[in-house]
Design a protein that fits this description.
Number of domains: 2
Distance between the termini: 106 Å
Number of strands: 6
Shape: elongated
Strand order of the largest sheet: 2-3-5-6
Strand content: 15-25%
Radius of gyration: 28 Å
CATH architecture of the largest domain: 2-Layer Sandwich
Helix content: 25-40%
Largest sheet: 4 strands, antiparallel
């Protein structure tokens, strides 16, 4: 069977393409800069994250997990890019608007999935009466600043603000003979409600 010769137009296009500049980037030899608005891999920012778990609550892919260590009094938030769908819900729900943000990173290939995670560790506050988790200390400090003078209606936020201003005594946990001294402790809502009811009745 005789193979027909290529048409003159096709040959001209092939020669033009051969000696002209490429339309695409020479990736991976040249670095590609994504445009503005590109949804890259989300990363935690340790200084701006307050450990409020807002990103964990709204993540539809469950790419964000957290673990509370009551012995070390730390909360660890972990983001897994291999599960992430880059929907930007975590960034939109962040209270500080900077705790977790989408960047322009898109080269996420790794040999092991757990090596490319992003983490944020925060100090944890437990109830001084029952040991229940109240929240992260940075979260309480953020709320104390947010509500302003209304923090005086909530002893837990007041203590968090005093801790930031270094006004708390180091030996604060000792018992006091005054019946209302128990209010000035980090207490969960249930323990604080029980204490108030006991004083009233």
């Amino acid at each position: 069977m005789r193979i027909p010769l290529p048409k003159i137009r096709e040959l001209a296009e092939a020669l033009t393409s051969l000696f002209s500049r490429a339309y695409t980037n020479r990736y991976p030899f040249e670095k590609v800069v994504p445009p503005d608005g590109f949804r890259g891999c989300p990363r935690f920012h340790e200084d701006d994250c307050i450990g409020c778990l807002a990103c964990y609550e709204v993540c539809p892919a469950r790419a964000i997990a957290y673990e509370d260590d009551r012995e070390k009094l730390t909360r660890t938030l972990t983001h897994r890019p291999d599960l992430c769908i880059f929907c930007q819900q975590c960034e939109r729900a962040c209270l500080t608007e900077k705790g977790i943000m989408l960047g322009k990173e898109f080269e996420l290939a790794v040999t092991e999935r757990k090596t490319n995670t992003s983490q944020s560790r925060k100090a944890l506050v437990l109830c001084e009466n029952c040991g229940a988790v109240i929240g992260c200390l940075d979260h309480l400090k953020f709320l104390a600043k947010k509500v302003g003078t209304l923090l005086y209606t909530n002893p837990t936020l007041l203590l968090a603000r005093h801790d930031e201003l270094q006004l708390l005594e180091k030996e604060r946990g000792q018992a006091s003979p005054h019946p209302r001294a128990g209010h000035l402790r980090f207490l969960c809502p249930s323990c604080r409600r029980e204490m108030i009811l006991k004083e009233q009745f």
